[in-house]
Amino acid sequence: QVQLVETGGGVVQAGGSLRLSCAASGSILSINDMGWYRQAPGKQRELVAAIIGGSSTNYADSVKGRFTISRDNAKNAVYLQMNSPKPEDTGVYYCHANGVRLSYTPRLGNDYWGQGTQVTVSS
Asked: Do 15 and 29 contact (CB within 8 A), yes or no?
């Protein structure tokens, strides 16, 4: 099994900064894609940022220039640096992994989610 655990959420003032971390554990040899999604109250879960194939990045238009995604392949970890957050960035942030190469099967594991971490941006 694969587990994703997010840390770093909390309350931050608008214009401040916050760093989210996500560590994947289990029988993992490698992970192709890792990313961050968020869900605000009453809204659908949406992509915030992702690293595809280990190097290519993809950002939601609303966070471009403010958030930065990075990863540490040796630790099977992904990070989200949130600079100048806005109140509309408030929500539960989820870590996601796809294309996970596992030690016990040749089949790739897909669509793993963390339990989520709450981020609240105060104005």
From this structure: no
pLDDT tens digits, 101-121: 999 999 999 999 999 999 999
Contact 45, 94 (CB under 8 A): yes
For the purposes of burial, counting CB atoms within 10 Å of the CB of 123, is it exposed (0-12), middle (13-18) or buried (19 or more)?
exposed
Question: Pairing relation of β-strands 91-102 and 112-113?
Answer: antiparallel
Decide if 46 contacts 61 (C-beta within 8 A). no
| DSSP per residue, 52-109 | ETTTEEEE-GGGTTTEEEEEEGGGTEEEEEEES--GGG-EEEEEEEEEEEETT-SSPB
Radius of gyration of the chain (CA): 14
